[in-house]
Amino acid sequence: MLQNHKKESLLIDTNRQNTNIAMKYLKDDPSIMNADSADDADVSVVKIRQQLAAAQQELSNLPDDVAFDIRAELQTSIGGTLVDLQRGEEAFEYARQAFDCFRDLQAWEGAVKACNVMFMADQSQSLAALGQGVWLSVTFPIDPELTVLMLNHIVDETPDDSDGAAVAAVVAKYIIDVRTDGKQHEDVSFYVNNLVAAVARRHSNVENQQQFDYWFEKLELNHPPLFLPRLRNVIDVLVQEDWWLDRDAIWASLPDQ
Prior knowledge:
- The chain has a single domain (5-25, 38-253), classed as Serine Threonine Protein Phosphatase 5, Tetratricopeptide repeat (Alpha Horseshoe).
- The chain has helices at residues 5-11, 38-61, 68-84, 88-105, 108-120, 126-139, 144-157, 163-179, 182-204, 209-218, 224-239, 247-253.
- The protein starts with a helix and ends with a helix.
- The radius of gyration is 20 Å and the shape is globular.
- The protein is built from 12 helices and no strands.
- By secondary structure, the protein is an all-alpha fold.
């Protein structure tokens, strides 16, 4: 990802820059995750367990010659269900198997989905999975909303005063600006603008547009050639030496401009 600006422009068209972010204070509308009663919660867990059993049975019934990506998609789904049941170790194992398959197939969006499950599994290698999922989701033009999800995880995982959170939030905004248009751009921009504003608030107590403009310029968040390489540094901190990808080989396979 992002080893030189020439190849950055292949995947993220820097001619379509739009990093003049209008600060928006949006009222948070948190999702209600809890069931209305203990009985409802019990029913929900039972249903999830039933879904898990059905998916595992489906996986065991797959013929040996089934397409590898079909098996990997099912493994990723099972991993996500295990996360819902707070069985993180098992969830990670299923998702890692899926990741390896998607990687070998160069099915990068599937690999990122598997990384998301591994991160949510909350295991010792979950941060490494997050870093690799972000690397892939920024390097390749996958579903931009999935890319934003992965970058949002970085925001959630970093301290309030971390510049890394600001970089991740601005890259999320940048990805949406260059990879979406129309209704999708309108809808997701609403979210990422709020994300950037929230990061500014927690990072530097930013409370008005003037403060925001100063903060944005001070952190050099209006220049993609500056903030994109900084994301690479954040990723390196997450992954350390625990790479499951041959980044050099992937990078070498990308056509030059």
